[in-house]
Amino acid sequence: MMKRKKNLVEDSSTLIALSDHPEQTYGSLEMSAAPQENRNVFSDGVTRIDFVLVWEESVNPLKLAESDEVSSGSSRDTHRKWRTEFLSRLQTAGLHQETKEVVQGKTKTTYVLLSAPWNVLCYYAEEISLRVPLQVVTTPISNWSEKILEKLHIPNIMAQDVPNLPPDYYTCQFHTNKLERFLGHENKDTFFKTTQRHQILYEILARTPYGSLKRGEVGIGRLVSEHVLTAAFPLHEGQFEMPKTSEDPKSLNMRQILHHYWARWACWRKYQPLDHIREYFGEKIALYFAWLGFYTGWLLPAAVVGFIIFLFGIWLMVTDVAAEELCSSGNAFVMCPLCNICSYWNLSSICYTYKAGLLFDNGGTVFFSIFMSLWAVTFLEYWKRTSSILSHRWDCSEFEEIEERPRPEFTALAPMTVRNPVTGAEEPYFPETQRLSRTITGNMVIILMIAIVLIFLIAIILYRTILSIIIYRSQNAFFIFSAGRIASLTGSMLNLLVILLLSRLYTYLAQILTRWEMHRTQTKYENAFILKVFIFQFVNFYSSPVYIAFFKGRFVGYPGNYNTLLGIRNEDCGASGCLIELAQELLVIMVGKQVISNIQEFVLPKLKTWWHRRKLKPAPSQELIDEPDGQPDLSPWEANYQLLVCEGLFDEYLEMVLQFGFITIFVAACPLAPFFALINNWVEVRLDAQKFVCEYRRPVVERAQDIGIWLTILKFISYLAVISNAFLISFTSDFLPRLYYRYTTGSMRGYINFTLSVAPANFTQSYMTCRYRGLRDDKGQPTQDYYHLLAIRLSFVIIFEHVVLLIGRIIDWMVPDIPEEVEIKIKREHYMAKEALAENQSLNRTILEEMEQQISELRFRGRTQSPNNISSLSSLSPEHKNKPTV
Fold it and tell me: Within 10 A of 625 (CB to CB), how many other CB atoms are there?
């Protein structure tokens, strides 16, 4: 029996000593005020509702009679048979049931309320290794920002006094024969937390068969997927709205507390009540919000530095020598036509555009690129530390996933069964060779979809070029002057629309492919699905910025020898460079996607909820006329059924990971990206909180030790960001050419002329010469400065990459994944657990000797002892002797 204490500060009290305050029970929060009435009970007003099963049926008698006459073995009859068998087995397993029926028009909705008695809870708590409390930990929990502000004597505007803080406990795995040693064992109604009761019920529902085991007809998951049941969910703890009359905050239920102190927009600058979130939703959801809050907090210094760099760019707009030279050049630099039908133009006409480019292309962006590369590495290292602290505090640092059962879809579709060599039971099986062939086929589909993305990218490139030509032919002076900007901006918006449409299409396609690949467990299924979607979304979202950053303007050629694509001249960067176009593309895609996603997250759940409630609206005869608001007083199970199904965390993680890529991989082009990400995340936290508290049905608690495969993806992005920023600064930015020119001439005077080449004589008319951007001689061949600059650029890439990665490795070495105090704490807990067990053995030596003798006899006799011997061996309660069966 492993016992663990979860705080970082040593407690001087004995680990196993029982609490001096027995009224502090484990399963419910200590409240000084009278709690609100609990409506989540059976008709007797006492039995707690732990889970609800729901199905809908048509009540049209003619329709039912016709279906019965046509075929007695119809799907409706099969579903009714499966439900009857399933409920019968649940009753055999020891669960209490109560049925409620609601007729609404031509539809009858049946609710089966389930409750687990004490003996069932004890049996399955030991079966699935639930952790229960030994002693309250009284050491307060604080974070680093609170400590810093306290030392500086600065008021902490982020702190708030959230009532009913869930107590911290020393815990260990539950054992029935050690029941009297656990805190709160006197009260059987509250000993197990509400979320633990949900876990136990879901465990029973997931392993209960309703038909043939060989056909995989097992578990609630397949019943819902086969539409035998329309829903299965635990209940929320009452309403989330605050009471109309002012009450003691300690009398609020946990859902009201989370809504008032977390999900409201007014809480945007407050700490998240992570322990309350964990208490109500479980560790997996709490870790997501902990990561999102941690990421948002770390965006603050990045946003501040980026904003300072942006202000530095504004200062350069006024003081830059090259910009002044360009704006005052007049007719000195006549530029070659931008297309085959375009006319010559003066470089001074793009004065404001060139100055705007300095906002994103200046020496400060080099510093900011290095800063963000190190920021990403440091952020991930400190998140790993924070994750280890939270998982230790939440009893997950040694969490090992219980042997996963096969997915319901896998059990239903597996073509054969094999005997498990460990359990001896027949289990569904899918041949590895067939899975491999399906996986390869799925990868081919991924490659095909990536090719489609690239085709759309080429189409948008052609669109920009063709639109520019059309605008030049319009003979409108204003549009001709802004042709490049109009084509670029509309191309970016069109690209965003294509990205969003392809994202929807591929996510749906990835679900089909992943199901088709027949992964046995849910973990393997989720990992395969996440990788598929991320690979595609990576290409989908980043292909256009990558093209602008590293390919656009590289294959243009020179006057008289232009390269073409499908007969159209290749795109070139504007005179102010590609970096401003890259910044525009990033802002349109990143900010545009964030705005659209937030609108969807705000509006769509409300529309779905309204439509779902409209379908479930009671008939007029059922409405309660005497209600003050004219609405029926719905029961908790009806009100919860009207909520939306929790969609999980995949979309939330994917959105944040893609955002992380934008602010790290291309940050050299847009210093304001972290600022926009910070604003978005402040909104995102509240939107997600509102969805989970107000609009979703309560999900079953899932335990987790960290954020899983997403951490590996974030590491990959952080390493890719170093390489990307090195090439951005070297080949896309004007930083190195400016540095080279200043070094060779001593000043920036004449820099504009240095960057422009003279068109070959065979291109220009005899009486006019034109200039174009490049380092070439009058024959179009690269000059010596071009090769010098190329060598400098390649050297910079190597030096930048090695220096940043080396510093990152040093940070990784200096910041251990698990804090030293946590490691010491874990070792201390192991030692204290051994001491506690040794003390227990010394006090009960005679009993242990008798137990060892009885164990030997049981092993020899093949477990054929009488019930009295078994009872004396295990010291089980009377309820636990009758072990529930499924």
Answer: 7
Q: State in Å, rounded, how far the first CA of the chain is from the last one.
A: 27
Task: Please say if the pLDDT value at position 546 is more than 60.
Answer: yes
pLDDT in tens, 459-505: 888 888 788 778 777 766 666 666 667 777 888 888 888 888 888 88
CA dist 222 and 622 (Å) reads 33
Give the position of tokens 């300095």.
Answer: 358
Give the range with max mean pLDDT: 165-174, 256-265, 853-862: 256-265
Radius of gyration for the chain, computed over Cα atoms and rounded to the nearest angstrom: 33
What is the reported pTM?
0.81
**Residue 557, beta-bridge partner list:** 562
Q: Distances in Å between the alpha carbon of 686 and those of 159, 256, 670?
A: 17, 15, 26
Neighbours of 154 (CB within 10 A): 9
Average pLDDT, the chain: 79
Helix (H, G, I), strand (E, B) or coil at 103: strand
Percentage above 70 pLDDT, the chain: 80
Would you tell me how many other CB atoms lie within 10 Å of the CB of residue 830? 14
Residues 6+ apart with CB under 8 A from 76: 57, 67
What is the per-residue DSSP string for 573-627? --TT-HHHHHHHHHIIIIIHHHHHHHHHHHHHHHHHHHHHHHHTPPPGGGS-TT-
User: Measured between alpha carbons, how far is 346 from 357 in angstroms, rounded to an integer?
Assistant: 18
The distance from CA 277 to its chain's CA centroid, rounded to whole angstroms, is 16
Q: What is the DSSP string of 723-761?
A: HHHHHIIIIISSHHHHHHHHHHHSSSTTHHHHHEEEPPT
Quote the tokens at residue 166: 């869930």
Residue-level pLDDT at 770: 86
User: CA 460 to CA 468: how far, in whole Å?
Assistant: 12
CA-CA distance, 233 to 700, in Å (whole number)? 7
Q: What percent of the chain has pLDDT over 90?
A: 22
Give pLDDT, residue 49: 92
Q: Report which secondary-structure segment, H or E, holds 56.
A: strand 51-58
Q: What is the pLDDT of residue 99?
A: 93
Q: Report d(CA 542, CA 484) in Å as an integer.
A: 22
* Residues written for the chain: 886
On the 0-12 / 13-18 / 19+ scale of CB atoms within 10 A, 559 is buried
Q: What is the 3-state secondary structure (H, E, C) of 303-356?
A: HHHHHHHHHHHHHHHHHCHHHHHHHCCCCCCEECCCCCCCCCEEHHHHHHHHHH
Lowest mean pLDDT segment, chosen from 189-198, 605-614, 646-655, 835-844: 835-844
Contacts of 203 by beta carbon, 8 Å cutoff, 6+ apart: 124, 127, 128
pLDDT tens profile 588-622? 888 888 888 888 878 887 787 777 677 666 544 44
